[in-house]
Amino acid sequence: EVQLVESGGGLVQPGGSLRLSCAASGFTLSSYSMNWVRQAPGKGLEWVSYISNSGSIIYTADSVKGRFTISRDNAKNSLYLQMNSLRDEDTAVYYCAREMTTTWFDYWGQGTLVTVSS
Amino acid sequence: QSVLTQPPSASGTPGQRVTISCSGSSSNIGSNSVYWYQQLPGTAPKLLIYRNSQRPSGVPDRFSASKSGTSASLAISGLRSEDEADYYCAAWDDSLSAVVFGGGTKLTVL
Questions:
Q1: What percentage of chain A has pLDDT greater than the value 70?
Q2: Distance linking the first and last C-alpha atoms of chain B
Q3: What's the Rg (C-alpha) of chain B?
Q4: Beta partners for A34?
């Protein structure tokens, strides 16, 4: 059974950093590209970042470019999102999602909540 | 404002047919496939439609979708109470090199 489990969310002050993890199981992570998608409280979905199966290709939304970095460790079956210089508007539930092909997210994690507040 | 435009709300009574539109541009819907996601209250999104009109296994055939030019639409026939959810369209945008989502449509079953 495919499972994606996010962790690492929590309360952080503006300007702070946080690293999210997504543990993958039930499939071979190295065969799939992965994404992070977020959802602010009461708002819609916002794509954050993409990483190819080997990690050689990365795309990042303009809203977080230069502050967030996606990475992966296929040997550890894990996906990561390093978030620096956090702002109030980064407050959201962050989901990791497996990608079949561009925009085709066939499995999602349950999400982890990041709250940026002083 | 979202790159893809959806109506914020839609509603219908049980058994009715409702449609949700999604409008984009030549750089996204006009040149790439459209995907639809359903998000039930308090849960993660779930893939509903892929490649404009294809249903994953397990998605009832009450759900259908189409694309024409720079617009797409999702139709739900035989509306049921369990269809009450938020629905999002999504596509790759060649100009932004990014996945873009619609703002979401909250479907209420009256």
A1: 100
A2: 28
A3: 13
A4: A51, A98
